[in-house]
Structures are given as C-alpha cells and as structure tokens.
Amino acid sequence: MxxxxxxxxxxxxxxxxxxxxxxxxxxxxxxxxxxxxxxGNDGASLTYVGSKVRSCEKIGFQSTLIHLxxxxxxxxxxxxxDQLNQDESLDGYIVQLPLPxxxxxxxxxxxxxxxxxxxGFHPSNFGRMALEMDAFIPATPFGIIEMLERYxxxxxxxxxxxxxxxxxxxxxxxxxxxxxxxAGNATVTLAHSRTKDLKALTLQADIIVMxxxxxxxxxxxxxxxxxxxxxxxxxxxTDTSHPKGYVIRGDVDFDGVAAKASAxxxxxxxxxxxxxxxxxxxxxxxxxxxx
Length: 291
Ligand code: NDP
Description:
Number of strands: 11
Oligomer: single chain
Number of helices: 10
Strand content: 15-25%
Order of helices and strands: EHEHEHEHHHEHEHEEEEHEH
Helix content: 25-40%
Strand order of the largest sheet: 1-11-8-7-5-6
Bound molecules: NADPH dihydro-nicotinamide-adenine-dinucleotide phosphate
Structural class: alpha/beta
C-alpha cells in the first residue's frame, strides 16, 4: 500500500516554487504577491489564513493580510474588493470563507477580478476550467490532481466515484478527472446525499474521492481490494484525552480501508497540505501571466 503523503509532496512543490521565485528575483522580475482578506475572528479561518500567509513568506512571496471587522458592511467590503482589483502590485487575492451572515458571499465572489481569483471560485474561472481552457483551478481539486500525477496513479479508463458535489471540491474534481489529460480520462460517478445505494457504487470504484465531511464514513466493507482512496474530509472530533480537546478525522475509516487499498491519503497530512501549496502555485501563475 502506498501512502499518498501530502506533507512531503507539498514540501517538494513549495521548494520548486521557491526556486522559481529566486530565479525571478535574480532576473529582476516581479515577486509574486498574494493578499488574503479575512472578515471577523472565526478561529478556524484565522488558522487557515495565518498558515497561508506564513507559507507565502517561507517561499519568498510578498503577502498582505487584510483583517476587517466582523461588522463591516457589504458595501464597504465591495469597496475593498474594488481596491484590490485596481492594485497593480497584487497578483492575486483570496477572500476567506465563510463571511458573516449579513454579507452575500456570491456578490463578493462575483466582484473579484477573475485574473486575480487565485482560489478559482469565480464563475468565469470555473467555466473556463470546465471547458478545458486556461484557468485558475480551485486549490483542493488542483492539489488532488497534482498528487495523483506525482504518484503516477493511473486514472485513464478507471471508474472514479466522487462522494460530495460542493462547488469547491466534489464537482470540480469530478469534472477534472473526466477530462482528457494526465490524472484524467476516468469514468466518473458523482454521488451525493440523494444517491441510492452508495455502497454498490463505491464497491465498483477503482478510485474513490471522499468529500462530504462525515468522519470515518467510508468503511472497509464499502471498497474493493486495490482501490485508490483520496480523503478530503476534515472534521474536528471531540477527544478529551487529547491536549487540544479534539482530533482531526477524515471521511475514511483509515485503518480498515488502508488494509484493502493500493494507495490512500492520510488525514491529517494528505489533501490538506496540498491545498495551500496549490494556492501558491496559482499565485505564481497569476504573476507569470502578468509579466
Ligand atoms: P459541503 O458540506 O459543501 O458538501 C458536502 C457534500 O457531501 C454535499 O454534496 C452533500 O450532498 C454530500 N453528502 C452529505 N452527506 C452525504 C451522504 N450521507 N452520502 C453521500 N453524500 C453526502 O462540503 P465541502 O465539499 O465544502 O467539504 C467536504 C469536506 O472536505 C469537509 O470535511 C471539509 O472540511 C473538507 N475540506 C477539506 C479541504 C482540504 O483542504 N483538505 C478543503 C475543503 C473542504 P448534497 O449536495 O446532496 O447536500
């Protein structure tokens, strides 16, 4: 069984990105600049944004954190977005989700300049991705593709079952894996909460991508021998024996499923670290496009 190690793969990728930044600096070219907009003080969002900013600094990118009050109005946030769109020093930016309830997320995402939308959430980027045109691909599915490529997992002609149809993970990965090209050419089934007899589908799958957010949902009796399993799920599960009071669990019952799998991602240390690395890759791409 191969452990698809997102930690070491993302480190290798970040080192490659750092080299490219060093080469740009030596050639007198612009250094990639990523900004992150954070509204309010949600604990998980603070952690995610903090780690994105730190990763930028580690590989030599310029980074800016724009931390706004929870009470900011939708109009004020739209004005901030407009400023970021106009800011010539900036290659890309992200707006950390979720936003406070009084702000319409869709309105904000639509206001982001698609050329700076390194999260790939703007409909223009999503549409371009679906049409196999040059686009910013959302970081999590982009990270899954990168990992499948680096571990040379054969996807062509395989049956891939994706569980979960969110706009940021399930749906885009189902599109990408069914497209032509490396880590593509799979026959994809996209399952969700209305899917009947999910187990019958997962038992047929050569590759399973779990992205539903229910800890340890996929059990050993739901998979066939030799399956490749990508676990996107991240859920905090209360555990009083742990110093933090919780542990992180994926959507896969790891020990049981790993015993039958030919390759599997762990949680933590699988898809999660790849996501940040791909955001950085998108930012470098944005910078290169502006050269
Ligand atoms: P969403 O909550 O947006 O979507 C969950 C999906 O799972 C929905 O499509 C839902 O179906 C489906 N679903 C729910 N219950 C079932 C069920 N019993 N059987 C089959 N399908 C079901 O989730 P996200 O895609 O945003 O996130 C999924 C998980 O991935 C979460 O744990 C999240 O924390 C994690 N995540 C991890 C990232 C990383 O970097 N590793 C990045 C992003 C997310 P329906 O559409 O019918 O409601």
